[in-house]
Amino acid sequence: MLRIEPSSLRGATTVPGDKSISHRAVMFSALAPGVHRVRGWLQAGDTLATLSVMQALGLRVSQEDGELRIESQGLRSPTWPRLDCRNSGTTMRLLSGLLAGAGIEAVLDGSDQLRRRPMRRVTEPLRRMGAQIEDTEGRAPLHIRPAALHGVEHHLPIASAQVKSALLLAGCFAEGETVVHEPARSRDHTERMLLAMGAPLRLSEDRRTCAIQRPATRLQSLDVMVPGDFSSAAFLIVAATLAPGSEVSLQQVNLNPTRIGLLHILQRMGASIEIADLAETSGGEPLGTLIVRPAALRATQVGGEEIPLAIDELPILALAATQAEGETVIRDAAELRVKETDRIAQVCDILRAFGAEVEELPDGMIIRGPRPLRGAHLSSRGDHRLGMLIAVAGLIARGETILEDEACIADSFPGFATTLARLGAKIG
Ligand code: S3P
């Protein structure tokens, strides 16, 4: 349980390593026999699920001075074929493509929460490539058996980096070319990392189409630094924007343009976010420092191609909208209903408990602001981003907020409460 009281945040901090890049660094090392080094790797529930599954598939991993050293000799079939992806959708979806391609027999399973999430979006296109993959009424467990794959041209109905990545990973082993078209851009860490490893990957000019050819399994070793996760920084950005008297500097944050939709949305709403120290990692990922100060916000409209660029940040954006002047409308975000929880229903429920005025839409929500918030006693519902949403709302709500079931926050942001406390938050 965490108790949170109104506070301002002041000081400089880093945030834990990017979750998407951390998953990929471990999985992609299976494509290149040799030794890989990853600094700043995220040690969190979801990425540890990937690490232990990949160890069961033959990767040898050690840690020295915060650096992950991965020794890869390719993949081998696990002795015990059930691989536990815990709560991690990214682990299950990316791995299904990798294992189907590599011809490994395994059963991918996970927590009850993960077993409720849709998997047909990966199993169907993989089957079109010749994969032998059975789902359980469209969900986990997934049973994969060895089969030879052929390249196929896929048109994704919804932009999804997880589905795109699964198909590209399968394509690394498939006969002929595998092409993936997306209706809008989704995060492109897979493309950047595969290119940094020297993979035969082609991208269209608008980067909505990518294509890969085999053999893409004798690639260069990774020697990369993982920048801070923008999705984790997002909670601190909104906290410092809303809590009077704050000034926070967030260092070495990943600023990949396919991840920072929230930054542009908040700037449009009037937020004060300065960007400094721009640089690029050896893995081809941009990073920088964000300096955030409080600002009065005005409402905005969010939808269309902006959604995949801010999908994981929409819950915390909704909190910012409760403090903005006017009616904020979030549309085209039905995907939020199939995340760790139904994040449309849950965000509306949580914000209402704090006294906000929110209307639920099938594919988003309408938030009317500004409304003063009052402390609430709520559970994270086992969803890390909802847990952090409640904690940040508690920093600006009158009175005390109590957050139950906060342990899941460590799925993506271990040390979240300590980081906030170091910046001056009354949380503990
Ligand atoms: C992720 C892609 C997104 C995102 C998830 C991580 C990734 O999911 O919501 O947290 O690392 O590829 P979708 O691909 O389902 O949109």
Keywords:
428 residues, alpha/beta, UDP-n-acetylglucosamine1-carboxyvinyl-transferase, Chain, 2 domains, 5-stranded mixed sheet, 4-stranded mixed sheet, 30% helix, binds shikimate-3-phosphate
Q: In words, what does this structure look like?
A:
This protein has 428 residues and is of the alpha/beta class. The chain has two domains: 2-16 and 227-427, Alpha-beta prism (UDP-n-acetylglucosamine1-carboxyvinyl-transferase, Chain); 19-221, UDP-n-acetylglucosamine1-carboxyvinyl-transferase, Chain (Alpha-beta prism), CATH 3.65.10. Helices cover 30% and strands 28% of the residues. The protein has 13 helices and 25 strands. Strands 18, 19, 20, 21 and 22 form a five-stranded mixed beta sheet that branches. Strands 23-24-1-25 form a four-stranded mixed beta sheet. A four-stranded mixed beta sheet has the order 2-15-17-16. Helix 1 (19-28) runs parallel beside helix 2 and helix 10 (314-322) runs parallel beside helix 11. The termini are close together. The model has no long low-confidence stretch (mean pLDDT 97). The chain binds shikimate-3-phosphate. The site of shikimate-3-phosphate has 10 residues, from helix 6.
